[in-house]
Amino acid sequence: MTTARPESLGFDALRLARIDALLKERYVDSGKLPHTQILIAREGEIVHFASQGMARASDSPGGGKPVDETSLFRIASMTKPVTSIAFMMLVEEGKVAVDTPVHHVLPEFKGLGVYNGGGAGVPFLTKSTDEPMRMVDLLRHTSGLTYGFQNRSNIDAAYREGRIENWHGNLDLDGFVAALGNIPLEFSPGTAWNYSVATDVLGAVVQRVAGVPLEDFFARRIFAPLQMHDTFFQVPEDKVDRLTDCYDFVPGGKPVMMDRGAASAWSRKPALVSGGGGLVSTSLDYHRFCSMLLNGGTLDGARIVGRKTLDLMTRNHLPGNGDLASMSKSLFSEAANAGTGFGLGFAINIDVARSMMPGSEGEFYWGGMFSTAFFVDPVERIHMVFMTQLRPSSSYPIRRELKTLIYSALT
Q1: Does residue 152 register a pLDDT over 90?
Q2: DSSP sequence for 207-223
Q3: For 401, how many CA atoms within 13 A lie in the half-sphere containing its CB?
Q4: pLDDT band at 61 (very low <50, low <70, confident <90, very high)
Q5: Nearest partner of 137 among 187, 198, 205, judged by Cα
Q6: Strands 382-387 and 373-377
């Protein structure tokens, strides 16, 4: 790894150092986060890379080793942009389209209705959708699907009862789609926004259209060309020693271990390959993915998607140019709502003033439930990758703080 002089790319090095102080003093030394790692780049060149804390607890195998550039992190929903890119690669090949009805590829969804009563032991009542669910609804989370952990409706209760989101359960991607085909939608596709398993369904679409397992498509078509050799759904045995510990937030107390790196669920092959949240990666690997996005779909001679395809993906696709504040039904999201639109796989900054923090209109981003995050700013030509391992991502306002400090360091 090489880093450029911050001053050569328009950053104040002393102001960038504020980020390390904040992460160390406010989060790692206080015990709020187990560790942190941040990468900041401009024009694809790394200008700041810093790690804090231990990769594993002292009582874990391999404990006492600091987080470094080889450390592996569960990136959760930062998987979603990868799946969205994979789908758009198939669009570019003419095999599917953004407006294709989902049931044309997944017939299990044909005739799927909208909730109109029942549940909790009573048979569901449904009504017809206003319009069919289309691929764009999966990409922008307007499908009517949900997440079981939201605990807000009889529909997500049915998801929990069926354990359909269990990566190590009895369902593979085909079984997952079949199970969803028997549960009503929360709303008619295109009429609202709800964070959901939509990108997992999109992964099933990629698998069906491409005719190869989703993990193989990712490995051959995205990770190999981008030289992302440390990104996978299952951590190889010879790399498990690099996987960091992961924790759950406890209000008023110390975080508790959620998944030990040495005996991680991510070291076992999942039955359900989750295009919505299953990947493990490194900061340097995800930096290469972001560099490809910033560079119009290409990196080091490898063309992943076309420039105009990426331009389409990073525009606001919410109906009426709406934002999440006006359309969201979700209790959980990886985005601030005000001034935030949604594209084809990314949140989009459509109003800097309404976001109430520095940024650029057209900036796109997302994060993961273990508090990881990234953003790409095509105006300032900046991208950031932030890694830690604490669930949920709403525990602290760290993403807002990091963005503010990064933009304050621009000269």
Answers
A1: no
A2: HHHHTS-HHHHIIIIII
A3: 14
A4: confident
A5: 198
A6: antiparallel
Owner of token pair 């990136």: 75
Q: Tokens 């929903």 identify what position?
A: 77
C-alpha span between 348 and 254 (Å, rounded): 34
C-beta separation of 155 from 107 below 8 A = no
Phi first, then psi: what are they for 345, rounded to 5°?
Answer: 115, -5
Report the largest interatomic distance among the alpha carbons of the chain, rounded to a whole angstrom.
65
The contacts of residue 397 (CB under 8 Å, 6+ apart) are none
Q: What is the mean pLDDT of residues 116-129?
A: 91
Contact 169, 272 (CB under 8 A): yes
Among residues of the chain, what percentage have pLDDT more than 90?
93
**Residue 336 pLDDT > 80:** no
Q: DSSP per residue over 101-127, as a string?
A: BGGGT-GGGTT--EE-S-BTTB---EE
pLDDT per residue over 286-332, tens digit each? 999 999 999 999 999 999 999 999 999 999 999 999 999 999 988 77
**Which tokens hold the place of 49?**
């890379």
C-alpha dihedral sign at 63, 66, 69, 75: positive
Task: Give the integer Cα–Cα distance in Å for 269 and 222.
Answer: 20
Contacts of 134 (CB under 8 A, 6+ apart): 98, 99, 100, 101, 102, 189, 190
pLDDT value at residue 60: 86
Partner residues linked to 347 by β-bridges: 342, 365
What 3-state class would DSSP assign to 135? helix
* Nearest Cα residue to 316 out of 339, 337, 342, 291: 342
Contact 304, 338 (CB under 8 A): no
Residues 235, 397: Cα–Cα separation, whole Å: 30
User: Which pair of structure tokens corresponds to residue 68?
Assistant: 């470094």
Residues making up the chain, counted from first to last: 411
| H or E segment and range at residue 87 | helix 80-92
Q: Are 408 and 400 contacting, i.e. CB atoms less than 8 angstroms apart?
A: no
Q: How far apart are CA 57 and CA 244, in angstroms?
A: 9
Instruction: Using DSSP bridges, classify how beta strands 298-299 and 35-42 pair: parallel, antiparallel or unpaired.
Output: unpaired
Contact between 275 and 203 (Cβ < 8 Å): yes
